[in-house]
Design brief:
- The complex is a heterodimer of chains A (330) and B (270).
- Chain A has 330 residues and is of the alpha/beta class.
- Chain A contains ten helices and 13 strands.
- In chain A, β11 and β12 form a beta hairpin.
- The longest helix of chain A is centred in the middle third of the chain and has 16 residues.
- The radius of gyration of chain A is 23 Å and the shape is elongated.
- Chain A starts with a strand and ends in a 34-residue tail after the last helix.
- Chain B is mostly helical and 270 residues long.
- Chain B has eleven helices and no strands.
- The chains are: A alpha/beta (330), B mainly alpha (270).
- The interface between A and B is large, with 43 and 37 residues.
Chain lengths: 330, 270
């Protein structure tokens, strides 16, 4: 059974802006599924519908077989949610905050155990939330999502604000949860995070899913590339014809091909036969980052465009220059 | 389906009273901790009703109460209940709801098992208990200090206080709907406070007003509580007026409930 089923999902905000424009996907039980996209692509707007915080303006969501909005009481005891930000009274301590949450949760785990699991030490247990660092707040948030033994876990940008060590710890924790059978849906704009964790992923843009699949499938849709420096005395015309779609810039040749192995074999055989050295030879499959950037740079399609509005980034961020896109490598 | 066998699937749609009690207790406890840490808020809630009651003594002693069956004590002491309702519950709670909403606490709570009603009620519990304690102290203490006879219709006094408290929670929810920041709540709660003090018989009993005006004012949200407490205390409330006061209160409670369900914003507007 699929833990999460989403079919033709739409979300329109009060002022008429449609942040989610017909999204469909499913997440299998025990799988980690990542939603990627630039700020404003509609990730958070989508996840909030899956969490049952709002009613879709169109389409259908099922979480563990129930409608998370209309059948709230059936779904909530079995899900854990980490919101994108905040949600703590700033004057409560870590322990008081999680105690409040545990009191609102059936069959809650012991507080100390959950805090230890997310790496919040006893020393921090009596610190007020307002004094925590951004990373510690994310850990507390994660602890709250884990209090109720969730079967399905929603993580909205779980590692934003964490230092590299915290990020590694969190990834390890998420993998552990998968091993114990938890289904995880996460959003992120760290591509490395998606590569590390996701069994399958979808890339969103302007409220729609542009591409989805396993990381390998998503990347396989894009051509691989071979690069080398053109040896002295050769021009691109000397290259074997089957490598034809080659571009040359400042002496560097780049060949883009969907068949990396064949093209590379052709190139190397040709080089040996002709006694040509290929300085700076470099061959690789496409990266998730390339796919992501290409999708992010697609031209806008009229109304609203890439500015997702809603919860997922301030409207003022529309018209982001390509160089400023939120592509971050951890 | 291993993870979803019968032991982990909770029966949907059934209200589990003990679980609801546990959630309300958890929410109330957290909110009480926060209230005790906010000394300014605590001071306003606790001290204002007493201070205003003492200050109003002068005004009240100048009133012509002839033919109303009231005395200075029975004007003043029920008035203090009005201050408690409006300051300690309505204004205080509006600020609390706005703060929790802006901190995204309400949004977070809604991702959990608590229902919307539990979230609002749980956050209100400390204010409600505090207010109830104040009412008891003010009524008992005031009656002792001003040497009042015991209430003739205590059940009306109790009904007026309890229903009034419920209404204040709902009206705080309505006010929070059009209040963007915690600071703004001090302004947005002002009109209702002013209207209640002047028009609902908190400061000036409706019995002292011209009939036409008193009739209109008796329909205001806090008026029925004041009438039930004051006239129930001295025993001058007719059967018709009793029913009218209760009906007005219940109508306001129903309207408040509908308004909160319809308009209460669970997260900040962006």
């Amino acid at each position: 059974m699929d833990a999460i089923e989403v079919d033709g999902l739409k979300r329109r905000y009060g002022k008429g802006f449609e942040a989610v424009r017909g999204v469909s996907f499913s997440v299998r039980e025990g799988e980690i599924f990542a939603l990627l996209g630039t700020n404003g692509a509609g990730k958070t707007s989508t996840v909030e519908l899956l969490e049952g915080l709002a009613k879709p303006s169109g389409g259908r969501v099922k979480v563990l077989g129930f409608d998370p909005y209309a059948e709230r009481t059936a779904v909530r005891p079995r899900t854990g949610v980490m919101l994108q930000e905040g949600g703590f009274p700033s004057e409560l301590t870590v322990t008081e905050t999680i105690r409040m949450w545990a009191g609102c949760t059936s069959d809650a785990r012991p507080i100390g155990e959950v805090l230890a699991q997310v790496g919040l030490s006893d020393r921090r247990a009596h610190v007020r939330v307002k004094q925590l660092s951004g990373g510690e707040r994310r850990r507390l948030d994660l602890a709250m999502a884990l209090v109720g033994h969730p079967e399905v876990l929603f993580l909205d940008e779980p590692t934003t604000g964490m230092d590299p060590e915290g990020r590694r710890d969190t990834w390890e924790l998420v993998r552990e949860l998968r091993r114990s059978g938890t289904t995880v849906l996460l959003t992120t704009h760290y591509l490395e995070e998606a590569e590390e964790l996701a069994d399958r992923l979808a890339i969103m843009r302007a409220g729609r899913i542009v591409t989805a699949g396993t990381p390998e499938q998503v990347v396989a849709e894009r051509p691989s590339s071979i690069r080398f420096t053109l040896p002295d005395g050769l021009t691109p015309q000397h290259l074997p014809p089957m490598l034809s779609p080659a571009t040359v810039r400042e002496g560097r040749v780049e060949i883009r091909t969907p068949q990396l192995q064949e093209a590379l074999t052709d190139l190397l055989l040709w080089a040996r036969q002709n006694g040509v050295a290929l300085p700076g030879l470099h061959a690789r499959t496409a990266t998730l980052e390339e796919v992501f950037l290409e999708i992010a740079q697609l031209p806008d399609e009229g109304e609203g465009g890439q500015d997702g509005g809603g919860q997922d980034g301030a409207p003022a961020q529309s018209g982001t220059a390509p160089g400023e896109r939120e592509v971050q490598r951890a | 389906m291993s993870a979803t066998d019968a032991t982990t699937v909770k029966a949907p749609g059934r209200v589990d009273i003990s679980a609801m009690g546990r959630r309300l207790r958890a929410l109330g406890r957290a909110e009480l901790t926060l209230l005790l840490r906010n000394k300014a808020m605590l001071f306003v809630a606790l001290a204002t009703p007493v201070l205003l009651t003492v200050l109003m003594r002068q005004t009240t002693s100048g009133m012509n109460l002839e033919g109303t069956g009231l005395t200075m004590g029975t004007v003043l002491i029920p008035g203090s209940i009005g201050y408690v309702l409006v300051f300690a519950v309505y204004a205080n709670l509006t600020g609390i709801y706005v703060t929790r909403r802006e901190e995204l606490v309400l949004k977070r709570l809604r991702t959990g098992e608590s229902s919307d009603g539990e979230i609002l009620l749980g956050s209100a519990l400390p204010s409600l208990f505090l207010a109830l304690g104040q009412c008891v102290l003010l009524l008992a203490g005031g009656a002792a200090v001003l040497d009042l006879a015991p209430p003739k219709r205590p059940e009306l006094v109790v009904a007026g206080v309890l229903l009034g408290l419920v209404l204040m929670v709902l009206l705080a929810g309505v006010s929070a709907a059009f209040t963007r920041t915690t600071e703004a709540s001090q302004i947005t709660t002002f009109p209702f406070m002013a209207i209640s003090f002047v028009g609902s018989g908190v400061v000036i009993p409706l019995d002292v007003m011209p009939d036409a005006m008193a009739n209109v004012c008796s329909l205001l949200p806090v008026s029925p509580t004041m009438e039930l407490v004051r006239n129930g205390w001295v025993g001058t409330l007719s059967g018709f007026d009793t029913v009218k006061a209760l009906v007005v209160l219940v109508v306001w409670i129903v309207l408040g409930t509908l308004a909160v369900k319809r308009w209460f914003p669970w997260e900040p507007r962006r």
